[in-house]
Specification:
With 318 residues, this protein is mainly β. It has one domain (24-309): 6 Propeller (Neuraminidase). The protein is 11% helix and 38% strand. Strand 10 and strand 11 form a beta hairpin. The two termini are 37 Å apart.
C-alpha cells in the first residue's frame, strides 16, 4: 500500500547567513575558461538576438513575429510573450514543490517524496524510495528525473542534485555540493552545461544567483537575478526555472507569473526581458513533452497544472 506523502513546514526564513562554498573546483575560474565561455556566448547571442528583440517588441502587440506558425498561437522557436493559460489539472497530494512530466506520466514533487501518476487515468502509480529532506524543482532528462535538493531551512546550508529512476522509483544522489552558499532550488542540463540556482531568502534574497557548470562541475560563470525579478519575490526567492527558446523562464514562490530572462555576454546580472502571467502559483515548473506546453502546481489546492500558450488575440490572466 502506498504511504501518505510527507511534508515539512516551508515558511520563508527571515535572514539567511552567508556561507562560503568550500569546493575548490567550484571556486576556480581561470582566464582561459572565462575567455572560452565569453566566445561561446557571443556566438549564441548572434543567433538569438533577433529572437529576443522581436519578442520584446511584440509584447504589447500580441502575436510574435519570426518563424512559422506553430498552430497554438506562438511562432516556432519562440516563447509566447502573451503568457500561459491553464489547459488541465490533476489532483495530487504531493503537489507541494514542483511538477515534471514525460509522455506517459506526470510527477508531483513534495519535500521528501516524488509521486508518479498516469496522465491518462490520473491514478497514482508509485512513490519514490530514498532519503530526501527538501526537494525542489524537477527536470526530466534521458529517462531520469533530476531534482534540486537542499537541507533548507537548516544551517549551514547543504545542497545536492537527486536523481529518480522512474522505473524503480529509487531516489539517489547525483551530485553533492557540500556546504553551499544558498539553497539549490532548480537545476537543468542545457547546451552541454548544468545550470543551477542557489536561493537566499528574506532580506538577503537579492543574493540569489545562477551558476553555469561544465560537465566536470567546474564553475564557468555566475549571475544574480535582476532587480525587476527580486522586487516581485517579497521575502521569498526564485523557486523554479527552465531553458526554453533561448531564454530562461523562472518562477517565484507563490505569484502566478513567469520571469523571462537572458544570459548576458558580459556582466554578472541576468538580463530582464518580461514578466508574463501563468496559471501556476509559483514553485517549480517543467516542459511537457506530450503537449509542448508547461507543467507546474497549484500548491494550495494540491494539483498539477498543465498550461499552454495564451491563444492569439488575448493575454493570459492569472
Amino acid at each position: 500500500m502506498l504511504g501518505a506523502a510527507e511534508y515539512h513546514d516551508d515558511r520563508v526564513a527571515g535572514v539567511v547567513e552567508p556561507f562560503v562554498r568550500t569546493d575548490r573546483a567550484v571556486q576556480t575560474r581561470g582566464a582561459e575558461t572565462t575567455q572560452a565561455t565569453t566566445k561561446r556566448l557571443l556566438m549564441k547571442r548572434r543567433i538569438q538576438r533577433g529572437l529576443c528583440v522581436a519578442a520584446v517588441a511584440m509584447v504589447a502587440a500580441g502575436p510574435l513575429a519570426g518563424g512559422e506558425d506553430a498552430g497554438d498561437g506562438r511562432r516556432e522557436g519562440q516563447t509566447p510573450m502573451r503568457g500561459w493559460v491553464k489547459t488541465g489539472a490533476l489532483s495530487a497530494p504531493e503537489a507541494h514543490q514542483a511538477a515534471a512530466a514525460s509522455e506517459r506520466f506526470v510527477f508531483a514533487i513534495a519535500n521528501r517524496v516524488v509521486a508518479k501518476y498516469d496522465r491518462a487515468t490520473g491514478k497514482r502509480i508509485a512513490q519514490s524510495r530514498g532519503e530526501a529532506e527538501h526537494l525542489n524543482s524537477g527536470f526530466l532528462w534521458q529517462g531520469k528525473l533530476y531534482c534540486a535538493h537542499s537541507n533548507y531551512p537548516k544551517m549551514p546550508e547543504h545542497s545536492d542534485i537527486k536523481v529518480l529512476d522512474p522505473e524503480s522509483m529509487e531516489l539517489t544522489t547525483l551530485k553533492g555540493f557540500g556546504a553551499s552558499a544558498g539553497s539549490l532550488t532548480w537545476a537543468v542540463w542545457h547546451d552541454d552545461r548544468w545550470w543551477c540556482t542557489f536561493a537566499f531568502y528574506g532580506a538577503q534574497n537579492a543574493r540569489t544567483y545562477l551558476v553555469e557548470f561544465d560537465e566536470q562541475w567546474r564553475e564557468q560563470r555566475r549571475w544574480r537575478y535582476p532587480p525587476e525579478v527580486v522586487e516581485r519575490l517579497g521575502r521569498a526567492s526564485v523557486s523554479g526555472g527552465i531553458w526554453r527558446d533561448g531564454m530562461i523562464l523562472a518562477t517565484g514562490h507563490d505569484a502566478q507569473e513567469i520571469y523571462c530572462l537572458r544570459v548576458p555576454v558580459e556582466g554578472s546580472v541576468l538580463e530582464y526581458v518580461d514578466t508574463v502571467p501563468a496559471p501556476f502559483t509559483g514553485q517549480g515548473i517543467a516542459d511537457d513533452p506530450a503537449t509542448g506546453g508547461l507543467v507546474g502546481i497549484d500548491r494550495k489546492n494540491r494539483k498539477i497544472i498543465f498550461a499552454g500558450p495564451a491563444p492569439p488575440g488575448r493575454a493570459a490572466r492569472p
